[in-house]
Please model this.
Amino acid sequence: MSAKRIDGKAISAQIKEEAAKEAAELKAKGIEPCLAVILVGEDSASQVYVNNKKKACEAVGIRSVAYELDAETEEGELLRLIASLNMDKTISGILVQLPLPKHLDETKVILAIDPKKDVDCFHPINVGNLQTGGKGFLPCTPAGIIALLKRSGTVIEGKRCVVIGRSNIVGKPVAMLLLRENGTVTICHSKTKDLAEICRQADIIVSAVGKVHTVTADMVKDGAVIIDVGMNRNEAGQLCGDVDFAQVQEVAGAITPVPGGVGPMTIAMLMKNCITAAKLQNGLL
Ligand code: NAP
Model:
């Protein structure tokens, strides 16, 4: 039997619609959400991501301003720009597109962003809030994964959840969010022994590794829910995930495709965070 497909395009469209409604409500109160995006250098993938963010803002009714800085920009100049955006009352959220050119210290740059404007949820204060269950921003891709699970009817509470990958951007925060939803969470990584055996116990598997065929059908329990975060290229150069989709869908209960699964959720959750930022700036949260 073939698994149910979890449709990231449809679910992300719902979330963007909800954000658009909230943006309109804020505007009716005289509050205009605005995202400032900073891009340093000419990395082509980053340019595509920044353009997609601008387009999403437009569609949702969030104003966006882009700062495209030269690849040789000095750290001081970037930090001064962030400081001025922190002070600017018309700016609700600030996003610095990563990765930065090598001469710039990413940690220093993230620390410079006002935590109340940190829509990527990378600032240690917001990472701490995630651990302690505080209000405010949630990291975009991990929050998108939780939304995919909940809105496709998967109950997380009481379930055995296995997260493969422990990066600060996906693995660790998604594990924390699954725990907040009362899942029982195991985090696996490159040094994990018996990955297949651990995965076979799972009701929910989230794979965030970045390698094709990390999850194969023999690692999946009948009816398990599979979330594939990976974005890889197969031998034919096509975009694919970490999961052997063709085989695993025969065993799983539900599965996200790549593309069209987790991918579209990240920008949708960013839009949600821009609304959260505007609310935080205006004492509405
Ligand atoms: P990352 O920083 O490279 O982390 C990869 C993780 O996988 C590491 O924790 C690593 O373990 C673990 N790992 C590597 N080989 C493994 C193996 N054989 N078995 C078990 N674990 C293994 O990557 P990331 O930034 O988290 O991204 C992961 C994937 O998600 C990438 O394909 C990326 O493009 C994709 N992604 C997609 C979105 C989206 O919006 N769809 C967003 C972000 C990322 P160690 O810690 O031991 O090295």
Notes: The mean pLDDT is 97. The domain at 140-264 is CATH 3.40.50.720 (Rossmann fold). DSSP finds ten helices and eleven strands in the chain.
